[in-house]
Amino acid sequence: MKVKINNKTENYRSVWFEPESGIINAINQTILPDKFEITELKTYTETAEAIKTMIVRGAPAIGVTAGFGIAQACMHAPKQNFTDYLKKAAETLKSTRPTAVDLFHVIDGLLNKIKDSDAIENKENAVEISVSESQKIANETINACKKIGEFGNELLKNKSKILTHCNAGALACVDFGTALSPLRIAKYAGKEIFVFVDETRPRFQGAKLTAWELLNEEIEHKIIADNAAGYFMQKGEIDLCIVGADRITANGDVANKIGTYEKAVLAKENNIPFYVAAPISTIDFSIKSGNEIPIEERNEDEVLSVNNIRIAPIGSHALNPAFDVTPAKYITGIITEIGIFKPEEIYKLKDN
């Protein structure tokens, strides 16, 4: 992704791994847009904490970072009790964010690779496999997101006006993004587009992160209050909606940042296409419907305070679900790295 620092533009991944030192480098998303800072994560416990505290966030980026965390665990594990150490590391990393399925896919996939190669009894081999496979996953994630952008770009006309919710850009996906990838590709293709950016309470990922990415890419946009989306839909100002996903079930239901469901309902009411952009790895075929998705409940202080300044009366409490579920009936299509599918068609992707 493009990042402008002191009038100089550089390309960054949101997270990357240095095998020589065992250090994971991550753009600290909790302090953007005020400050651009790379956080160094030296152990799997630091990596788990970074995922939990949302220094790293976004389903694909979480999965990639967790994969790097498994590599760190293999590097630091003692030869004696290696298996127990790795098991504990996997459990710690899995406990950080319960909703994003990429986290579990990557960790279980790496553990199976290590086990199938008999490296579980050989520390050196386990290190080699975990490092190479986690780097491979990172590169595959980037390639998938680029492909999502190419397919999604076909939906965008010159002068298209798009609504997005939360941040599903390069920050959330290592590079390119999911929901923002079509916007990037459209920009590179010379199209003029305009983006309505939901602020995305309570953590303001839209206002802070999506706007920051679009600004760096010089894509025209305006930030709107979450509860203003219906107003602009009703006025005919929005041509289509594109959001990301943290988990998609076998029937096409989608878990995404809280507030996504109401945007989908509003889009349906106003005859506006509503698309979900996500790699195939985000589809959880073991879950039949959205009713089975575990929804993360976060600290109430995120709702009661803004930038550590309390906005609610002392004594009032809050509920803070991090995600909601959008039923498949509200979704026009799911943009993947191999094409765009209707929710009822995603069974075709099971073996991909």
What report would you give on this structure?
By secondary structure, this protein is of the alpha/beta class. The chain folds into two domains: 144 residues, translation initiation factor eif-2b, domain 1 (Four Helix Bundle (Hemerythrin (Met), subunit A), Up-down Bundle), CATH 1.20.120.420; 200 residues, Translation initiation factor eif-2b, domain 2 (Rossmann fold, 3-Layer(aba) Sandwich), CATH 3.40.50.10470. The chain has eleven helices and 18 strands. The chain has a seven-stranded mixed sheet with strand order 8-7-6-9-12-17-18. It has a four-stranded mixed sheet with strand order 13-10-11-16, covered by helices on one side. A three-stranded antiparallel sheet has the order 3-4-5. β1 and β2 form a beta hairpin. The longest helix is centred in the middle third of the chain and has 31 residues.
Characterize the main sheet: 7 strands, mixed
Radius of gyration: 20 Å
| Average of the residue pLDDT scores | 95
- Strand fraction equals 15-25%
Secondary structure class reads alpha/beta
What percentage of residues falls in helices of 4 or more residues? Answer: 25-40%
CATH domain topology of the largest domain: Rossmann fold
The tally of helices reads 11
E-strand count: 18
What sequence of helices (H) and strands (E) makes up the elements? EEEEEHHHHHEHHEHEHEEEHEEHEEEEE
Q: How many angstroms separate the termini?
A: 27 Å
Low-confidence stretches: none
CATH superfamily annotation of the largest domain: Translation initiation factor eif-2b, domain 2
CATH class identity of the largest domain: Alpha Beta
In spatial order, strands of the major sheet run 8-7-6-9-12-17-18
Q: Specify the overall morphology.
A: globular
Domain count, please report it: 2
CATH architecture of the largest domain: 3-Layer(aba) Sandwich
